[in-house]
Design a protein that fits this description.
By secondary structure, this protein is an all-alpha fold. It is built from 14 helices and no strands. α3 crosses α14 and α9 packs across α11. The protein is globular, with a radius of gyration of 23 Å.
């Protein structure tokens, strides 16, 4: 049965050739580079590994990187859904411009984004000066990191949810309304279950992007040890100090933690998709 499924005719001929190319591509681009982390880290003794990945400074960077990435992705999941809803369901002036602005973080160099955000949210910036009068300091604090991660992560949520929301049949909503369902019931019982898998995917993509973000963050973070120092910056510092084994050890911890979290989110997404289809 399995061999029959493999040999089914396809638009692209040559199962062996395409499979071989796929495996070779993944091997060269993903497996071999990542396996280098394991081999380089293996040169450390167990005590050296623990000292490299569990020092107070490194633990503080883990807490900040994962915490800020999760907060930014959660924020984008909520407000990205609202933005996506407005773009799909309403006709408004300048809609094409707004739609293009959503993709701006994709095209903008991360360093440019970091400089722009720092200029706006610093104490002398247009927004930052008003916020500081209220006792809220953004630039050079963990809050500034979250702002930068929200900026670079919003397109992932919008572009993931948008096609699902566009394909959602409005007649289902009208049928629910004709049966006496309120707007809240229609959203929670009909709309949200259908878009939740896509929203979860957008959240996971935004979280993954935020976790590895470097360029836009270092300008607005302040990079104070134990306060606003992210893990990618610590890896760069280790590399500049020629401590390659220490850098790969920290990177390995980030890799394993990120993979575990993304795998968990992927399993939840598949489970939710099956429930929707059922």
């Amino acid at each position: 049965m399995f061999s029959e499924k493999i040999k089914k005719p396809s638009v692209i001929p040559g199962f062996g050739l395409t499979l071989g190319f796929t495996l070779l591509y993944l091997l060269l681009i993903v497996v071999i580079p990542l396996s280098g982390l394991f081999f380089k880290t293996a040169t450390l003794s167990w005590q050296q590994f623990v000292d490299a990945v569990a020092s107070p400074r490194v633990l503080a960077s883990y807490k900040l990187s994962f915490g800020a990435s999760f907060a930014a992705a959660a924020f984008n999941a909520v407000f990205g859904l609202i933005l996506c809803w407005v773009l799909v369901r309403y006709k408004l002036p300048g809609k094409k411009i707004i739609d293009a602005m959503v993709d701006l973080p994709f095209a903008m160099p991360t360093a440019v984004a970091g400089i722009a955000l720092t200029a706006v949210y610093s104490g002398q910036g247009f927004i930052g000066s008003h916020l500081e009068k209220l006792g809220i300091k953004v630039a050079f604090t963990p809050l500034g990191i979250i702002v930068a991660l929200i900026f670079i992560g919003i397109p992932f949520v919008v572009r993931t949810v948008e096609p699902v929301l566009m394909d959602l049949d409005r007649e289902i909503e009208e049928a629910a309304a004709s049966l006496g369902a309120t707007r809240l019931q229609t959203f929670t019982k009909i709309i949200f279950p259908n878009i939740f898998p896509a929203l979860l995917t957008g959240f996971a993509l935004a979280f993954a992007k935020a976790l590895g973000e470097y360029g836009s963050v270092i300008f607005i973070a302040g990079n104070l040890p134990m306060i606003s120092e992210i893990t990618p910056l610590l890896i760069v510092i280790k590399l500049e100090q020629y401590d390659y084994a220490g850098a790969t050890a920290i990177a390995l911890v980030m890799l394993l933690a990120s993979f575990t979290l993304l795998l968990t989110i992927s399993m939840i997404e598949r489970w939710s998709r099956k429930n929707v289809l059922a």
